[in-house]
Design goal:
Helices cover 33% and strands 21% of the residues. The chain is α/β, with parallel strands linked by helices and 254 residues long. It folds into 2 domains: 110 residues, 3-Layer(aba) Sandwich (Rossmann fold), CATH 3.40.50.1000; 106 residues, Rossmann fold (3-Layer(aba) Sandwich). Helix 5 crosses helix 6.
């Protein structure tokens, strides 16, 4: 492995596993990996503990401190920029709600200062109305990510981006986005690892989030062809990775 990298960021689904099935070569890769690393995911629905349980079920070595979700990035951003105990209206699930509560924010639909939107599989017209009304009344609008499709064991489902689009259209406001391909997630990972962005390698399977985000942030981008992007997609894509890997073990040869 090229030693100019001092730390690695891993996307998970499509890089380490598909659904509940660990990909070939993953355990062998982690057996010889000596660099510090973080797992970075746009999925805001799970807590780090829940993500950790999934990784451990597949025997992938991880600690809860190594897991960085878009929910944690959003909560960290508000911790650094919002008044203490600011009021937040959440469109989201347990991962996002827990992250914000842990940072001391009050979750409410009563005149919130912020509207924070993540994946919410129970999203309905009532939540849309509450979010739009709060934003029109001056609440700041934050989105965990803009992924329009969420992959799962049975295929795909609408992602956070579909919810954010509806709120943005109805409110006339554009959100501040925390997850890939935007910078906040990469910057938080670098701070946690005490490394510069240019010292990191991002390994992902998605050109529009993992690779584009890494390139924008000045991080070396490695596309692994075990997920959503295939080699043929590179022919027409304006986003080009620095490295193309058939699987994780290929990185050991580079």
């Amino acid at each position: 492995m090229n030693r100019r990298f001092r730390g690695i960021l891993f996307d998970m689904d499509g890089v380490l596993y598909h659904g509940s099935q660990r990909l070939a070569g993953v355990l062998e890769f982690f057996t010889v990996l000596e660099l510090p690393y973080r797992f970075v995911t746009n999925n805001s629905s799970r807590t780090p503990t829940q993500v950790l349980e999934r990784l451990h079920n597949m025997e992938i070595p991880a600690t809860v401190e190594q897991i960085l979700t878009s929910a944690l990035v959003a909560a960290d951003y508000l911790h650094r920029t919002a008044p203490p105990a600011a009021k937040v209206y959440v469109v989201g699930e347990v991962g996002l709600r827990t992250a914000l509560i842990d940072e001391g924010f009050r979750l409410t639909d009563d005149q919130p200062d912020y509207v924070v939107v993540g994946l919410d599989r129970a999203f309905d017209e009532a939540k849309l109305t509450t979010a739009v009304t709060a934003i029109r009344n001056g609440a700041s609008f934050i989105a965990t990510n803009m992924d329009r499709v969420l992959m799962n064991e049975t295929g795909s489902q609408p992602g956070t981006g579909t919810i954010v689009d509806r709120i943005a259209e109805a409110s006339g406001q554009t959100p501040l986005v925390m997850g890939k391909p935007e910078r906040p997630m990469f910057e938080m990972a670098a701070v946690q690892m005490a490394l510069a962005l240019e010292d990191l390698l991002m390994i992902g399977d998605n050109l529009e989030t993992d690779i584009l985000g890494a390139k924008r942030a000045g991080i070396t981008a490695a596309l692994v062809l075990t997920g959503v992007t295939k080699r043929a997609d590179l022919v027409t894509s304006p986003v080009q990775p620095d490295l193309v890997l058939e699987n994780l073990l290929d990185l050991l040869k580079s």
